[in-house]
Design a protein that fits this description.
This protein is of the alpha+beta class. The protein contains eleven helices and 19 strands. A hairpin with a 2-residue loop joins β4 and β5. α1 crosses α5, α2 packs antiparallel against α5 and α7 crosses α8.
């Protein structure tokens, strides 16, 4: 049932009334350096915040065997986080509406060189309309919005008339296994909303992502006899060129993939890290290159991994050194497939009405070429998976920031969406 104007206005005002507290809460999240493997403290903080709001609580670890047995499971490595996943559960008095998952991730990517930032990367500094800090946009502002959109209903004596799961996961930035674990635990709903920083738009199509490492081994000698050795770093640079050709070939296929045909460069290969050698005057005996590449929806991770491995092996056969010293390829993180959100779902229609009420313009959708946890719910739960969130800049870069007016608008739209999707009932004293 659509919201009546009086209730709509009360909800919008309630979000505004609580927004300064929401900003302060977001700053607390940003000031916790929740890098991969170091998310325990922030997950404890969120657990206690949700418990203080009288949600039923669940906290569990990842089940490696279960994840590895599932087709959506990504690869474990020694860097995989062992921080817990937290779920706060709202249960209504009368299950009259449609259930909902509100999810966020609190792991963040490394901050880079601190001297490149205008302020310390975990400062949560506010300058004008922007809050700065690693994770401010991706996606601690969204994590706070999940909680404060529900708070806004409580402030006016209302709560969802359906079950709502507030899920805080880790490993979103490296495997996506945290979201998958919530699915494996049995958490499901009639829809899911994840407020990633998507510039106030809805993600219509999303690429899959693979992480892999190419390991090259050389023949070390003193640099004065370098002609008698084999430089592993030089060999790795030649492999990078071959991978760039693979990237070019995959981009040439974009016309066969709806929602990607008009993108200039939908498939991105990133050489994210290079390590090699031991001494400036020794021909390096080893070099590892860590790579990330996206894949089209409908392409399986297994098939993409096979093509990557085959391409590298075929190139090595043409190379005088690598043909006798074939490189190894190890998949060590994301092994995730992409998805397309079918248009026309009632969940999208409800979100569209909420968005248009707040922003006074229709909700736009677009393709994004990064990993999103919504893939778990689109591919395996097969429920409407909505990814929609605030305007940001420099995510994964220097001086990452989120627009506070946009966060305010998004939180208002989320609160309206929750009220219409789930329905509302009065909070009992």
């Amino acid at each position: 049932m659509r919201l009546d104007p009086e209730l709509r206005d009360r909800i919008l005002k309630s979000v505004t009334d609580g927004f300064q507290d929401q900003i302060a809460f977001t700053q607390k999240l940003v000031r916790m350096p929740s890098l991969r493997g170091r998310e325990h403290a922030i997950q404890d903080f969120v657990f206690n915040e949700l418990r203080s709001r009288d949600y039923a609580m669940d906290r569990f670890m990842m089940d490696r065997a279960a994840i590895e047995a599932h087709p959506g499971g990504s690869k474990f490595s020694e860097d995989h986080s062992n921080a817990p996943i937290v779920v706060g559960i709202h249960r209504p008095r009368d299950e009259a509406g449609r259930s909902l998952i509100l999810q966020s991730h609190l792991d963040v990517v490394p901050e880079g060189l601190h001297e490149m930032w205008n302020d310390p990367p975990f400062s949560g500094e506010i300058d004008g309309d922007w809050m700065y800090g690693r994770g401010a946009a991706d996606m601690k502002a969204g994590a706070a919005a999940n909680i404060f959109a529900l708070d806004a209903l409580r402030r006016i004596g209302l709560q969802p008339a359906a079950t709502v799961y507030v899920q805080s996961v880790v490993e979103e930035e490296s495997t996506g296994n945290g979201a998958l674990q919530t699915f494996l635990e049995g958490y499901t709903a009639d829809a899911v909303l994840i407020p990633e920083p998507e510039d106030e738009m809805l993600v219509r199509a999303n690429t899959g992502v693979l992480w892999f490492q190419v390991q090259v081994r050389g023949v070390p000698v003193h640099v004065r006899e370098m002609g008698e050795g084999a430089n592993a770093i030089d060999g790795a640079t030649r492999i990078i060129a071959a991978l760039r050709q693979l990237e070019e070939d995959w981009n040439a296929e974009k016309g066969a993939h709806p929602h990607f045909e008009d993108e200039a460069h939908p498939i991105n290969l990133n050489i994210g890290k290079i390590e090699g050698g031991d001494w400036a005057s020794s021909v390096p005996s080893w070099c590892n290159i860590d790579c990330r590449v996206s894949i089209y929806p409908g392409q399986t991770a297994k098939d993409a991994a096979r093509e990557i491995t085959d391409r590298i092996a075929a190139f090595a056969q043409t190379d005088r050194f690598l043909s006798n010293n074939p490189p190894s390829v190890v998949f060590n993180g994301f092994f995730a497939e992409g998805y397309v959100l079918p248009p026309g779902t009632e969940a999208e229609a409800v979100l569209g009405r909420a968005h248009e009420t707040v922003l006074e313009q229709p909700l736009k959708s677009f393709m994004t070429a990064g990993y999103l946890d919504t893939r778990v719910y689109a591919l395996y739960n097969q429920i409407p998976a909505l990814c929609y969130g605030p305007i940001s800049r420099n995510i994964h870069g220097i001086d990452e920031a989120v627009s506070l007016p946009s966060v305010h608008r998004i939180t208002q739209a989320m609160a309206l969406f929750i009220a219409e999707w789930c329905g509302v009932e009065e909070v009992q004293p």
